[in-house]
């Protein structure tokens, strides 16, 4: 694409396709540098296409790029060059009969494919990545998600290098050929768009198991990896079986092929891909064992396995009409994987983790140059729209529908959605239509969530009328302007809330809708609270029969993705921390108190002693409360991160914010130093299974305590960390100890780093951690340290995981280093983007985002960051991916 004249695609320009592909038969003659692809398309005119009155029918335009066209035949007759037009991105044939067969032969070079899109090589094996528009790098095709076709795939390759040859669906034949070659055939009976096509071939080992579906179908499950990883697949397999069972139990959705395969590859642009029957994964979301994976890694494997599996229905059986509808499958599938994890572990802790991510990263996106609705209106490069907004905010929108409908109607509505749209490509509007068929509430206004960018703000004021025993709660909403959107209309915001009396008892409320009880809830109706429908710009809710001024608990469970502005006293927040029956809001009250304390330092230059006393005391209660889940305690003892705090500020002076955060962290650690030391040494459970829930929670609490202690002099915690490193029998404790040591400058730091490195040799995921742990250190020499690591023999710029472990860890998880006052951090990142863009635009574009927020910066940092964007812009011809982000950021 010519980036001097980039093409913007608009949502409202959607047109149905003129042609359908009823069947496609693909033949691959695999060769590392010259793979021949023969594609036979059975075409017919689309009866639903816009009809031109008389005259010849429309021509056919197929997308294709980076593939060398060898020949085209129409109904058995080879076309001459003058019978078609070929450009860098399209193949056009002007005249075809209404039904015809087109055979296209292309030649592609997987070995030189560094963008990791289309057919490429990873560790000497062949694999594909076609979402969103990678199939066009394999052959000329109608590469759009609303063209569904039945695929037959034949693969021929050397037996020696490619003993394993996989594609979607069921394997229907295998034959050994002359010359050391062999051939397999795969048939996928389910019509699918090209982005779900997959092929994998190479020398892979696998484990296998079976799953019997609710209706009795026996499904073969296989996980393919490089042979040296074969012992690290068991957890992924059990996660897969749990996901399959969960989707049957919770949604009544069964698997629909005879086999389900997962392949792990080391070189992958994102997390994983839901290709029909053949999911391809970044190995980081498959491989796990005690010596290489942290508890967080295990939870990540489980969640991503579930996510991709759940796509079999929400994404594959029912797919997207066009890429603007991406959240139709991604928001819904994230919501489903979140529910799955929440059912298997602590629901509150899972919710806290999800909300932390949303606030830290999605809120930033919503307030930056790329702010877009969960259903965007335009794009230059669709790969740039696989965003936290489409995924995470998209999941929040689904969650709000779940809250508005209640669990029973939600399930009925999902049944309607599946029933209506199975086997088709559809839209977000059609999804809400399905919800509306069973919902009691009118969802017309709710649909604005799909078209509104930006994070709404809800302001709260309270008034207690003691004479009439009435309590008035006024909620006012507004949503900030975002690029291309201003004066937004009010949204339908579900606000779950409750009132407490001064003793902490829940009041029965005379206003609001009742909340359906969760199946195993031990809570009373009053404790659960009610649902208020906030639909106006400003709305007052009155509660009768309130005998004394109550304490309000708002937005329980974070019932809507908004910023709440509610001015209450420190005492009220401390009271909610101790008494709110909604555990999420107990955590939230602590976060608000901590935020107030940190932002107070920014304003007053010192810590407010009263607020510190309140929070310190509340922490003391939490530390002493043995009835609390240790993982919850860990969350309650974790301060909001810099990227979350930033959301409360108009203009950000990072150096000042980081200093204020450090000051508060230090003060709290000092106050509770003794208790924290005890937690580090005494919370771990000996002699229980690695993934025992109490053992995992114990590690989380102990390592949170250790991280807090690192704000104090190293003499206090250094020996604890070194001892923990030496004694650790699992990766969670080992890496937490190493991370602590990395902030300091002790001899133990270098010793442990060297030891970790030596043990990481031969395990790429562990080596990634060695880079990441150094990239997130608070050492003052961090920018030079990171630059030096770029030169390390084990650094591989061509491997996305390795690159992210150093560069993205630094830019996203090391605010002190990235925002270094002299702008060195920004320059470092810009250099990496420039170096990577011509090799892998998709990954390069992901690295640009942190530089896009220069307008929010205060002081000299603002211009320093902007200069780096300008430098990228002027560095030469850019990919459309990087071009779009840089030009939008500079607008
Ligand atoms: N659809 C995938 C998921 O969310 C993600 C995905 C989109 C992807 N584009 C990709 C993965 C490119 C790898 C490369 O599950
Ligand atoms: Zn997905």
UniProtKB/TrEMBL annotation:
GO biological process: proteolysis
Annotated Peptidase M1 alanyl aminopeptidase Ig-like fold domain residues: 454-565
Cofactor names: Zn(2+)
Sequence ranges assigned to domain Peptidase M1 membrane alanine aminopeptidase in this UniProt record: 235-449
InterPro entries: Aminopeptidase_N-like_N (IPR045357), Aminopeptidase_N-like_N_sf (IPR042097), PepN_Ig-like_sf (IPR038438), Peptidase_M1 (IPR001930), Peptidase_M1_dom (IPR014782), Peptidase_M1_pepN (IPR012779), Peptidase_M1_pepN_C (IPR024601), Peptidase_M1_pepN_C_sf (IPR037144)
Catalysed reaction equations from the record: Release of an N-terminal amino acid, Xaa-|-Yaa- from a peptide, amide or arylamide. Xaa is preferably Ala, but may be most amino acids including Pro (slow action). When a terminal hydrophobic residue is followed by a prolyl residue, the two may be released as an intact Xaa-Pro dipeptide
Claim: Hydrolase is one of the keywords in the record: yes
CDD domains: M1_APN
Residue ranges annotated for the Aminopeptidase N-like N-terminal domain, each copy included: 111-196
EC numbers on record: 3.4.11.2
Keywords: Aminopeptidase, Hydrolase, Metal-binding, Metalloprotease, Protease, Zinc
GO MF annotation list: alanyl aminopeptidase activity; metallopeptidase activity; zinc ion binding
Residue stretches making up the Peptidase M1 alanyl aminopeptidase C-terminal domain: 570-891
Keyword Metal-binding: yes
One Pfam family of this chain: DUF3458
Coiled coil regions in record: none
Family: Belongs to the peptidase M1 family.
Protein name as it appears in the record: Aminopeptidase N
Gene (UniProt): pepN
């Amino acid at each position: 694409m010519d980036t001097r004249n980039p093409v913007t695609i608009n949502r409202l320009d959607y047109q149905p396709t003129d042609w359908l592909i009823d069947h496609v038969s693909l033949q691959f003659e695999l060769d590392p540098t010259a793979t021949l692809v023969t594609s036979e398309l059975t075409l017919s005119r689309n009866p639903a296409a816009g009809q031109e009155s008389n005259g010849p029918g429309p021509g056919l335009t197929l997308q294709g790029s980076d593939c060398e066209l060898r020949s085209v035949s129409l109904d058995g007759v080879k076309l001459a060059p003058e019978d078609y037009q070929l450009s860098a991105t399209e193949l056009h044939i002007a005249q075809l009969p209404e039904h015809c067969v087109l055979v296209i032969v292309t030649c592609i070079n997987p070995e030189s494919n560094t963008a990791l899109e289309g057919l490429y090589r990873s560790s000497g094996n062949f694999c594909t990545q076609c979402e969103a528009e990678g199939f066009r790098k394999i052959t000329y095709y109608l590469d759009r998600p609303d063209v569904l076709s039945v695929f037959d795939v034949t693969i021929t390759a050397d037996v020696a290098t490619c003993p394993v040859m996989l594609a979607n669906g069921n394997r229907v034949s295998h034959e050994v050929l002359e010359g050391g070659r062999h051939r397999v055939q795969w048939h996928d009976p389910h019509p699918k768009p090209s982005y779900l096509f997959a092929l994998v071939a190479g020398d892979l080992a696998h484990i296998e198991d079976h799953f019997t579906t609710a209706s009795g179908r026996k499904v073969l499950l296989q996980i393919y990896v490089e042979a040296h990883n074969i012992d690290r697949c068991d957890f992924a397999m059990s996660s897969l079986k749990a996901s399959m069972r969960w989707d049957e139990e919770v949604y009544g959705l069964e698997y629909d092929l005879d086999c389900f395969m997962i392949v792990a590859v080391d070189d992958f642009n994102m997390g994983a891909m839901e290709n029909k029957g053949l999911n391809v994964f970044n190995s980081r979301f498959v491989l796990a064992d005690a010596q290489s994976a942290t508890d967080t890694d295990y939870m990540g494997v489980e969640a991503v396995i579930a996510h991709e599996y759940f796509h079999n229905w929400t994404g594959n059986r029912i797919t997207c009409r066009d890429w603007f509808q991406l959240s139709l499958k991604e928001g819904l599938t994230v919501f489903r994987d979140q529910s799955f994890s929440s059912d298997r572990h602590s629901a509150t802790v899972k919710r806290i983790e999800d909300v932390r991510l949303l606030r830290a990263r999605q809120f930033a996106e919503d307030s930056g140059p790329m702010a877009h609705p969960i259903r965007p209106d335009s794009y230059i490069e669709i790969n740039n729209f696989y965003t936290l907004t489409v995924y995470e905010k998209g999941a929040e929108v689904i969650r709000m529908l779940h809250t508005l409908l209640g669990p029973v109607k939600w399930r009925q509505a999902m049944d309607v959605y599946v029933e209506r749209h199975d086997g088709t490509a559809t839209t977000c509007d059609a999804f809400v239509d399905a919800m509306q068929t069973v919902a009691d509430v009118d969802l017309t206004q709710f649909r604005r969530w799909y078209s509104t960018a930006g994070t709404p703000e809800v302001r709260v004021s309270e008034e207690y009328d003691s004479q009439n025993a009435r309590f008035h709660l006024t909620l006012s909403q507004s949503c900030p302007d975002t690029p291309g959107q201003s004066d937004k209309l009010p949204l339908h915001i579900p606000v779950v809330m409750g009132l407490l009396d001064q003793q902490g008892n829940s009041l029965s409320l005379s206003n609001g809708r009742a909340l359906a009880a969760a199946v195993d809830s031990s809570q009373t109706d009053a404790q659960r609270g009610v649902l208020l429908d906030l639909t106006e710009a400003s709305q007052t809710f009155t509660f009768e029969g309130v005998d004394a001024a109550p304490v309000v608990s708002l937005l329980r469970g974070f019932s809507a993705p908004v910023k709440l502005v509610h001015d209450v006293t420190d005492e009220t927040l401390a009271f909610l921390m101790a008494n709110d029956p909604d555990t999420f809001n107990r955590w939230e009250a602590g976060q608000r108190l901590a935020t107030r304390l940190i932002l107070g330092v920014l304003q007053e230059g010192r810590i407010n002693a009263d607020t510190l006393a309140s929070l310190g005391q509340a922490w003391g209660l939490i530390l002493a409360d043995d009835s609390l889940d240790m993982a919850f305690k860990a969350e309650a003892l974790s301060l909001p991160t810099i990227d979350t705090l930033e959301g409360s500020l108009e203009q950000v002076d990072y150096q000042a914010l980081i200093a204020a955060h450090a000051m508060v962290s230090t003060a709290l650690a000092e106050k509770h130093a003794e208790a924290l030391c005890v937690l580090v040494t005494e919370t771990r459970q000996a002699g229980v299974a690695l993934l025992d829930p109490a053992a995992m929670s114990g590690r989380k609490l102990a390592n949170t305590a250790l991280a807090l202690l690192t704000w104090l002099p190293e003499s206090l915690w250094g020996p604890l960390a070194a001892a923990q490193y030496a004694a650790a029998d699992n990766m969670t404790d080992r890496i937490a100890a190493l991370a602590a040591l990395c902030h300091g400058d002790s001899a133990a730091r270098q010793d442990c780093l060297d030891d970790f490195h030596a043990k990481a040799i031969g395990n790429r995921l562990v080596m990634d951690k060695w880079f990441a742990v150094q990239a997130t250190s608070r050492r003052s020499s961090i920018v030079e340290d990171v630059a030096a690591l770029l030169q390390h023999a084990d650094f591989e710029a061509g491997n996305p995981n390795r690159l992210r472990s150093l560069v993205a860890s630094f830019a996203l998880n090391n605010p002190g280093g990235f925002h270094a006052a002299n702008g060195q951090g920004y320059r470092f990142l810009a250099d990496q983007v420039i170096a990577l863009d011509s090799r892998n635009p998709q990954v390069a574009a992901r690295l640009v985002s942190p530089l896009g927020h220069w307008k929010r910066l205060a002081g000299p940092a603002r211009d320093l960051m902007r200069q780096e964007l300008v430098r990228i812009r002027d560095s030469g011809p850019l990919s459309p991916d990087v071009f779009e982000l840089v030009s939008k950021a500079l607008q």
